[in-house]
Design a protein that fits this description.
Elements (H helix, E strand, L loop, with lengths): L5 H6 L14 H16 L7 H5 L7 E6 L49 E2 L1 H11 L3 H10 L9 H10 L1 E2 L2 E2 L7 E2 L2 E3 L13 E6 L12 E6 L4 E7 L12 H15 L18 H20 L4 H11 L4 H12 L6 H17 L9 H29 L1
Helix pairs in contact: 4-7, 11-12
Length: 388
């Protein structure tokens, strides 16, 4: 049996009857609104599993986060009023429609009718964190993200604008943000539970009068959301983040800052302990798949260079690169050029190519420069002979 589109119930069906135009039918209107609210609130996750399975998931990288008390409100700035039907007397009675209607808006996916957190909201929250450089620096330390000579402004430009050193990246090399959706897989636990509820805010415009509660719709605590991203390794020559490092950073920001409306009242926050193990497992799986793809068809030297490129900078890596530099003389021309370019690239990224270098490192750089110069001269001679 097809399940109702909740977005339609909330934004269209809510206004379908003519009770709002009748001046003498307030109690009936209140009862009707209660029925409409019940049709929205009595929905269970299990009712929509088939719908979400037919809708392919987006994004390669995913985060799973669970809402905490009091829940999540998204789209509260949208209008959801029904006009002037307020009963002036007996405002606190149960049958007053003013106390029954869901007054704040809510954001639903148009097609599925299910709550979603728009990609623009996710991107906006994450970008706002980068305005506080001290906070990002603290996260780098807390999460033990190893990256050298980084610049947070460069990260912000690349991640959120697709720009590196003033040049726009190809769309295929940019980070992409997708809508966050409620997860309907095993990670959500009990699927036979409601995922929407109602709540109240009580503004006090007059200190001498009782406040009139405003009823609104929210996602309940304990609901798991899937945040979807298509992330790329940084194109920065130095101090860039890898895709999995961005994902770990994004997760912590979302847990710290929350998403949606009324975060100052506790709405929109997530359980910081939930989904961490799943994240590490997913990252490991993606890294294994990427490694398998990268190594396919590579020579033994190519595989060796690949594994060296994956290592974080350390004295051990520096030693391995020194040994590789010593082997340049005995390599074939093609392998010598590939290795020399690799050494130059990795030393540039780790500030070991120019500037204040040790005597030992300076000799290595001179050696690589010499090899590249010799190879350039050789190919130049061959080109001239071909022309003749």
């Amino acid at each position: 049996m097809p399940q109702p589109n909740i977005g339609f119930l909330f934004n269209k069906d809510y206004y379908a009857d003519d009770y709002f135009t009748q001046e003498n039918n307030k109690e009936q209107l209140a009862e009707e609104l209660e029925e409409k609210n019940k049709a929205i609130l009595d929905r269970k996750l299990s009712e929509y599993i088939g719908l979400k399975k037919s809708n392919p998931q987006t994004g390669v990288y995913k985060l799973y986060l669970k809402t905490t008390y009091p829940g999540l409100l998204i789209g509260g700035g949208y209008m959801h009023e029904v006009g002037q039907f307020t009963v002036q007397e007996n405002k606190e009675t149960k049958n007053n429609p003013e106390n029954t209607i869901l007054k704040l808006g809510f954001y639903f996916d148009y097609t599925s009718g299910l709550p979603v957190i728009p990609a623009s909201s996710v991107k906006g929250v994450l970008r706002s964190a980068f305005e506080n450089k001290e906070y990002i620096n603290d996260l780098i330390k807390i999460l033990k993200i190893k990256v050298n000579n980084f610049n947070i402004d460069d990260w912000e430009k690349e991640i959120f604008e697709g720009e590196v050193k003033g040049e726009k990246l190809s769309i295929y090399k940019r980070d992409v943000f997708f809508d966050a959706e409620i997860d309907f897989e095993a990670k959500s636990g009990d699927l036979d539970k409601n995922f929407l509820g109602d709540d109240y805010i009580t503004p006090h415009p007059d200190l001498l009068k009782n406040p009139i509660p405003i009823k609104f719709l929210k996602v309940l605590p304990g609901v798991v959301w899937r945040f979807n991203f298509d992330l790329q390794d940084s194109a920065l020559q130095e101090g860039g983040l890898k895709a999995q490092q961005k994902l770990r950073l994004f997760r912590q920001i979302l847990c710290d800052l929350g998403v949606g409306a009324r975060t100052n009242l506790g709405y929109g926050y997530f359980d910081a302990t939930f989904g961490f193990k799943q994240l590490e497992e997913d990252i490991k799986k993606l890294e294994d798949e990427k490694e398998k793809e990268e190594l396919a068809g590579k020579s033994e030297l190519g595989k060796r260079l690949y594994f060296l490129s994956r290592e974080q900078w350390s004295s051990e890596l520096e030693k391995k690169l020194g040994e590789l530099c010593e082997e340049l003389t005995n390599m074939e021309i093609k392998d010598r050029k590939l290795t020399a370019l690799f050494l130059k690239d990795i030393w540039i990224k780790n500030s070991k190519w120019q500037g204040k270098l040790s005597i030992k490192q300076s000799k290595k750089v001179q050696r690589v420069n010499q090899v590249l110069s010799e190879l350039t001269d050789q190919f130049s001679v061959k080109d001239n002979l071909k022309k003749k």
